[in-house]
């Protein structure tokens, strides 16, 4: 009987040890890739070009157990790019490039990764991160974001009224802001700068008060990018 109890104790101990080792491997044993990237939006205005930028922290972690389409997990710490169009723009005055883009709700980490590596498409693997790493350092230069990968652009007719939000056509800023306004460029670059904080909050009072900035619009059909814009597409912590 004592021998059986000892044997059971050894078995339990081995199972516990194996579980601990597995958990440690899942937590620390798979590759993790981190970098900071800066998005810059330049707008032509009647008074000359203006720009806004935002630095994001991006982290990709490989899954120890992979399934199709689920080999990696992503965490992005960022906030929307805010472009102040200047006093002559009156209202609306601000353009926002949200953390949401064509075909993905995590633009800054997924399609952006492909852009920074110089790839087409969204294939995520070790080779992609190696290409991104090669762009780090003083020699890294901004790259133009492809049109199909633009973030969602919005403005507010009244910055104090979330319901006044409107989508901005990147190919026709004049329709939103008047003659002489046009999108000049959207670029990404690897950077050593710290993550941007507080710029979008300084402009949108709803973020300061931790309220919903862009309410659900049930009048829009499913699939319309403006139907549901939660705060994490404006600021992701």
On the 0 to 100 scale, the average pLDDT is: 78
The radius of gyration is: 23 Å
Q: What is the count of distinct domains? A: 1
- Roughly how many Å apart are the termini? 57 Å
Helical proportion, percent range: 10-25%
Order of helices and strands: HEEEEEHHEEEHEHHE
Structural class: alpha+beta
Quick one: how many beta strands?
Answer: 10
Major β-sheet strand ordering: 6-9-1-2-3-10
Largest sheet: 6 strands, antiparallel
Give the helix tally.
6
What ranges have pLDDT less than 50 throughout 5 or more consecutive residues?
A: 102-110
Strand share of the residues? 25-35%
Which overall shape is indicated by the principal axes computed on the Cα atoms? Answer: elongated
Describe this structure in words.
The chain has one domain. The chain contains six helices and ten strands, in the order H-E-E-E-E-E-H-H-E-E-E-H-E-H-H-E. About 4% of the residues have low confidence. Helix 2 packs across helix 3. 23% of the residues lie in helices and 29% in strands. The chain is α+β, with helices and mostly antiparallel strands and 237 residues long. A six-stranded antiparallel β-sheet has the order 6-9-1-2-3-10. Strands 4-5-7-8 form a four-stranded antiparallel β-sheet.
